[in-house]
Design a protein that fits this description.
Organism: Paenibacillus dendrobii
Distance between the termini: 53 Å
Keywords: Dioxygenase, Oxidoreductase
Structural class: alpha+beta
Shape: globular
Largest sheet: 8 strands, mixed
CATH architecture: Roll
Low-confidence stretches: none
Strand content: 35-45%
GO molecular function, one term: dioxygenase activity
Pfam families: Glyoxalase (PF00903)
Protein name: Ring-cleaving dioxygenase
Number of domains: 1
Number of helices: 5
Order of helices and strands: EHEEEEHEEEEHEEEEHEEEH
Mean pLDDT: 97
Helix content: 10-25%
Radius of gyration: 18 Å
CATH class: Alpha Beta
Strand order of the largest sheet: 2-3-4-1-13-16-15-14
Number of strands: 16
CATH superfamily: 2,3-Dihydroxybiphenyl 1,2-Dioxygenase, domain 1
């Protein structure tokens, strides 16, 4: 079996307004869904991605205002990579500088990256890629032809990199591209979220909290393939959860030998199942079993808004 690549990546942050300002206001992503953590409905679950809310473009957040600060390390997605159109890296270099986001220029596997962090310390990077459809979403002074397409991939920080590499190839169906310096590279057949790097040397285990990734989700084409994925994972000796209904996709979870929480999520039904495609993310959506508690839940959530940010004066 082979996954097309990343479905979504989910991280812990603290403040919903700060998070939306950074990912929508500065990076120009589209807030495609605001709902709650189904296991802790006093906490938002915010989804941001491209104009169509496509798999391979969605980064999601649990904003816990009283969260401890996490430490990025082994057993986590260490770096989340966003892909932008070829020829637009200069635009993003200037935009990050304009909004006073510190960044470094790095080269990995002959590609140039802008590496930076959000306000909670989540490690991010931007790279140019030919693959992947151009965004249809333009916001905050970012034209479509410069906008983030979706995920370029991720860097996995593993406590057991040889075993993580084996799983990516033998279970998830990635192809090994090669090794350069501190990283091995793997590629799937999808156009977005398809390039995964893994550290060569085991890394010290990180700690969860604000500024860290909780899990990375891989794509399953449909419900039938999803059931096949669960059997496939179990056959390889991994402990997979039952399939869970997450409203906008079905999900199953397992932890790989390097400590990283993996999810496999279905492409359908998608984020337009309970909102019009041109009105995504405009209001709080709750699953049916929480609807009768809407007033109570809303009272515990901190209001926020998607807003165009002014460039700071120098």
């Amino acid at each position: 079996m082979k996954t097309a690549g990343i479905h979504h990546i989910t991280a812990f942050v603290r403040d919903p307004q700060q998070t939306v300002d950074f990912y929508a206001g500065i990076l120009g992503l589209h807030l495609v869904k605001q709902t709650v953590n189904f296991d802790a409905p006093e906490v938002y679950h915010l989804y941001l991605g491209n104009g169509q809310a496509s798999p391979g473009t969605i980064i999601t957040f649990f904003p816990w205002p009283r969260s401890r600060q996490g430490r990025v390390g082994g057993g986590q997605v260490g770096v989340t990579t966003f892909a932008v159109p070829t020829g637009s890296l200069g635009f993003w270099e200037q935009r990050l500088a304009d909004y006073r986001v510190s960044f470094d220029k790095i080269v990995r596997f002959s590609e140039e990256y802008l590496a930076f962090r959000d306000g909670d310390g989540l490690q991010l990077e931007i790279v140019e890629r030919e693959e992947g459809s151009q965004s249809t979403w333009a916001f905050g002074g970012i034209p479509q032809e410069k906008a983030i397409k979706g995920f370029g991939g991720a860097i996995l920080y593993s406590t057991a990199p040889a075993q993580t590499a084996h799983l990516l190839q033998q279970v998830m169906g990635f192809e090994r591209v090669g090794q350069e310096g501190a990283y091995m590279r793997f590629k799937s057949f999808g156009e977005l979220g398809n390039m995964i790097d893994v550290n060569v040397t085991p890394m010290e285990r990180g700690t969860g909290g604000a500024g860290t990734v909780h899990h990375i989700a891989w794509r399953a084409a449909d419900d039938q393939e999803h059931e096949q994925w669960r059997e496939h994972v179990l056959e390889h000796g991994l402990q997979a959860t039952p399939i869970m209904d997450r409203q906008y996709f079905n999900a199953l979870y397992f932890r790989e030998a390097g400590g990283i929480q993996f999810e496999i999520a279905t492409d359908p039904p998608g984020f337009a199942r309970d909102e019009q495609p041109d009105r995504l993310g405009e209001k709080l959506m709750l699953p049916a079993w929480y609807e009768e508690r809407r007033a109570e839940i809303e009272a515990k959530l901190t209001p926020f808004e998607v807003r165009v940010l002014e460039v700071p004066t120098k």
